[in-house]
Specification:
7 helices; mainly beta; Leucine-rich repeat, LRR (right-handed beta-alpha superhelix); cell membrane; single chain; glycoprotein; signal; six-stranded parallel sheet; membrane; about 10% helix; about 20% strand
Length: about 650
């Protein structure tokens, strides 16, 4: 009997080994994928334009080695097809592009030619399909997608599918994740989803229908998706959320819809929520919020009013709290925020907080809060008083500080210049006065500095030249004048400079044209005179140039036509004369207001035609006792800009404003 058992055991082991080896050849390598599945993938590829050769690896017999294809380790069957665009659309690339496009994204798209080849049905064991961020040219989602009965993950987001979502997708009862997100920025065709399609998705844990144009109430079928962990319905036109009663949710995003009235009471029962985003709706009551597990709470852009909800004081795990653009006031703000020691982002902008609340803001004596808070936004309220000295307690963590649009007064405290981690500082649109502290030069991580629309005066400190990461500087609408503003080699990344609405006088320095990295230059509404530098065309990166409301004279240099990226130009209200240059980008800037207030200009786009020049007559100025002095006999009685370039290849720059 024992011998028989031994024989049976040996047989079982033998069968087990043979079963394993079925998926491997004699050399120990896994068998190639089935020929029919390989052919199916190649047929699918033939219906795509592969602009950047993303699928160049799709050669040879073994499709399991192809990029984006994964196979079962034992059977060799294709189980995963991941063709997600490796370069999803990027807003920064879009905005930085003159043509307002993201070529990196668009060129990496797989572009469909005609319908998706149904040969994919040969992939009978497929459980993962991701075609997101490609371009399927507005064709309908293939009905045969509903026949992938083993599919657990389906991502068709932002893939330019259009039309009606086929009800056949309702057959995918094994789906755990479904993403049909679109993005209106591309003007995609709407994907209206039939509510009946949803009723079979009872196994879903993730459902994302964001940024479509679904209307009416949230589909009642969602109520039956009791396994849902993530529900994202933002960017639609839903107007009723009464069906939501999903206690297993950890992430709920209903932002950018037309929901109104009190926040749904059912949310109170979602005790596992860690992310709740309800922004950009018309909610007017937030009393139901009592969720102690939240790490992100966004109630911005609603009609909430009165004190900040008292329940927030118990949300001790909060990292992000966004309450901007409501009607909250400050009656109990200190009590509600004092326990939020883990906060990283606090945005209370555009509310009705008033008075000197900021002087007695929550005590940052807690080491954890001092080390965590990175973003503090209190802009566009009615706050008054002086900037407080307690800001220095955030010196190791605070990266973004926006106090703009209030009524703060007095000088900038030196404590603010101890925020060594600061990258963005916006104090604009207040009533601050005095000089910019010389110690600003110690804010070595500063990228954006916005001090416009205040009452600052005096000189611009040379220490700003030490800010090697500065890319945006706005000092407009103040009373700055004289001495010097120094930019050294370290400031070669400055792309935006706004010195408008001050009292600078003198000429625009010729060396300014060496700042080839500038995207935007605004020197308007000063007292600058002389001519526009002849080499202005060297500033090839300029997209915006504003020299209006000065006393500039002479002709417009022909080189200005070399600014091929310029989309905004304003030379109005000066004393410019002669013909307006033509060619390149200037041909598209045909708005006559660009040249208003320069009565001696002529040529297109103005109606005034130019008169051919006459032969000049030589005049001996010395015989008339004239020299190069101003009319009042002064040589240096004005503000002089001078920019010194360290070497012929230096990209840094130096502006010296010298007042006698």
């Amino acid at each position: 009997m024992a011998f028989l058992k031994s024989i049976i055991l040996v047989f079982i082991v033998f069968c087990f080994i043979e079963t394993i080896q079925l998926g491997w050849n004699v050399d120990g390598a896994r068998l190639n994928c089935p020929q029919n599945e390989r052919n199916a993938l190649l047929s699918f590829k033939q219906g795509l334009i592969d602009q950047t050769n993303r699928l160049s690896s799709w050669v040879g017999q073994d499709c399991c080695k192809w990029k984006g294809v994964s196979c079962d380790n034992f059977t060799g069957h294709v189980v995963k097809l991941d063709l997600r665009n490796p370069f999803p659309f990027d807003v920064d690339r879009f905005l930085d592009s003159f043509s307002r496009s993201d070529k990196t994204y668009s060129e990496a798209c797989l572009v469909a030619v005609g319908e998706v080849n149904s040969s994919l049905l040969e992939l009978k064991h497929l459980n993962y399909l991701d075609l997101s961020w490609n371009n399927f040219s507005g064709i309908a989602i293939p009905k045969f997608f509903g026949l992938f009965h083993e599919l657990t993950y389906l991502n068709l987001s932002t893939a330019w599918f259009g039309g009606i979502v086929p009800h056949h997708l309702g057959n995918l009862s094994t789906l755990h994740s479904l993403d049909l997100t679109t993005h209106d920025i591309f003007l995609f065709k709407n994907i209206p989803l039939f509510h009946s399609t949803l009723k079979n998705f009872t196994s879903l844990t993730i459902l994302d229908l964001s940024y479509n144009k679904f209307q009416g109430p949230i589909p009642s079928a969602i109520r039956n998706m009791t396994s849902l962990k993530v529900l994202q319905l933002s960017g639609n036109s839903f107007n009723n959320s009464s069906v939501l009663d999903l206690t297993s949710l950890t992430i709920l995003d209903l932002s950018w819809n037309y929901l109104q009235g009190p926040i749904p009471s059912a949310i109170r029962n979602m005790t596992s929520l860690i992310v709740l985003q309800l922004s950009h709706n018309s909610f007017n009551n937030s009393s139901v919020l009592d969720l102690t597990s939240l790490t992100i709470l966004d109630l911005s852009w609603n009609y909430l009013q009165g004190p900040i909800p008292s329940a927030i004081r118990n949300m001790t795990s909060l990292k992000v709290l966004q309450l901007s653009d409501n009607w909250f006031n400050n009656s109990l703000v200190l009590d509600e925020l004092k326990n939020l020691y883990t906060l990283e982002v606090l945005d209370l902008s555009s509310n009705k907080f008033a008075g000197k609340m900021f002087e007695r803001f929550p005590n940052f004596s807690s080491p954890s809060l001092r080390d965590n808070l990175e973003t503090l936004i209190l802009s566009r309220n009615r706050l008054t008083g002086y900037l407080p000295n307690w800001l220095y307690q955030l010196k190791s963590s605070l990266k973004f500080l926006d106090l703009s649009g209030n009524s703060f007064e007095g000088r900038i405290p030196t404590s603010l210049t101890k925020l060594f981690a600061l990258q963005v500082l916006d104090l604009s649109h207040n009533q601050l006065s005095g000089e910019i502290p010389m110690s600003f030069g110690t804010l070595s991580n500063l990228k954006n500095l916005v001090l416009s629309y205040n009452q600052f005066n005096g000189t611009i400190p040379t220490s700003l030249g030490q800010l090697s990461h500065l890319t945006y500087l706005s000092l407009d609408a103040n009373n700055f004048h004289g001495r010097e503003l120094e930019y050294t080699n370290n400031l070669r990344f400055v792309t935006n400079l706004d010195l408008s609405n001050n009292i600078f006088i003198g000429q625009i320095p010729k060396q300014l044209t060496n700042l080839s990295g500038l995207n935007s230059l605004n020197l308007s509404r000063n007292h600058l005179k002389g001519s526009i530098p002849k080499k202005i065309g060297q500033m090839r990166s300029l997209e915006s140039l504003d020299l209006s409301y000065n006393h500039l004279s002479g002709t417009i240099p022909q080189s200005i036509s070399a600014l091929t990226l310029v989309s905004y130009l304003n030379l109005s209200n000066n004393n410019l004369s002669g013909p307006i240059p033509s060619g390149n980008q200037l041909q598209t800037l045909n708005d006559t207001s660009i040249y208003d207030g320069n009565n001696e200009l002529c040529g297109l786009p103005l109606e005034k035609k130019c008169i051919p020049p006459q032969t000049p007559t030589y005049v001996d100025r010395k015989s008339k006792g004239e020299d190069k002095r101003d009319g009042d006999g002064r040589i240096g009685g004005m503000l002089i800009f001078s920019l010194l370039i360290a070497s012929s290849l230096a990209t840094g720059w130096f502006i010296q404003l010298l007042e006698e």
